C-alpha cells in the first residue's frame, strides 16, 4: 500500500471516556448528492477508511489458517455479544449489524450492506470490545464467517444485487474481501494475479486465501467464459503484482463505493461514526 494511503482510526477511549459518552441511534445524513461533501470530510469517513486500511495491513502476506491471538475482550464479545459495562452502546452499534444483512423487503444485498458490517466491526473497536491485536481475527474469523453466511443467503434466496454496479463491478455483492484478499497474497512465492483465472490454482488454494475464495464463489454462481461474466476481474488478472492490485482496489473502493451517492445515501451516523468534519488532531 502506498504510504500516503495509510490511516489509523482514532481511538475513542482517548477521545471520550466510554462511561460518560452519550451514545445515539445512528441516522441517515446524506439526502442529496451535494451532501456527499459532508461525508468525505466527516470523522466517520476518516475512521471507516482508516479501519479498512489498518486491517489491510494486518492480513498482508498471511493465510486464512494463520495462527493469531485473540484478546480477552474479544472472547467476551463472543460469549456476551457486548460486555455489560458497555450496554449503553448496544442500541447504536446494533444498527450497523441490522443494516449488514441486506434489505428484507427487496431481498437485495450489495456493497452498502457490506460496509455496514465493516462499520459494525469498526464501532466494536472504537468502544474497546475489539482491539488492534485482534485485526487478523477480525478479518479471518469474524468477517470471513460473515461472508459465509451472506453467500448462503445469496444462494438460498437468490438475492438481487443492490443497485447496478456497471462495468466496474468486481462481482455482484462484495468488495472488501478482494481488497484484504489481495493483501494476503502480496509477495506470495508462486501465486501471481494471473493465476486467479486458473481453475486449478483456485481449486488448490482457495481455502487459504480470501481472494481466491471469492473467485470460486463467482464461478459457482455464474456460467460462461470468465472474461465475459467478470470482465473487470479478468482485466485485473493482467496486473503484474498483488501489491499493485491491492493499491488499485483501494483506490477503486474509495471512488466507486465510498464516493457513490447510491451507496452512501443509506449509511447512518451516530456518536461513534459522526458526520461532523474530521478534526486536525485525528
Structure description:
The protein is an all-alpha fold. It is built from 14 helices and 4 strands. The strands form 2 sheets. The protein has a two-stranded antiparallel sheet with strand order 1-4. A two-stranded parallel ribbon has the order 2-3. The two termini are 21 Å apart. Residues 1-17 have low confidence and may be disordered. This is Serine/threonine-protein phosphatase 2A activator. Pfam families: PTPA (PF03095). It is an enzyme of class 5 (isomerase). It comes from Moschus moschiferus (Siberian musk deer).
**Helix fraction bin:** 40-55%
User: Taking strands numbered 1, 2, ... along the chain, how are they ordered across the largest sheet?
Assistant: 1-4
Binned strand content: under 5%
Q: What is the straight-line distance between the termini? A: 21 Å
Mean pLDDT: 86
Number of helices: 14
The helix/strand series, from N terminus to C terminus, equals HEHHHHEHHEHHHHHHHE
- Gyration radius (Cα, Å) is 18 Å
Structural class comes to mainly alpha
Which word captures the global form? globular
The number of strands is 4
Largest sheet: 2 strands, antiparallel
Low-confidence stretches: 1-17
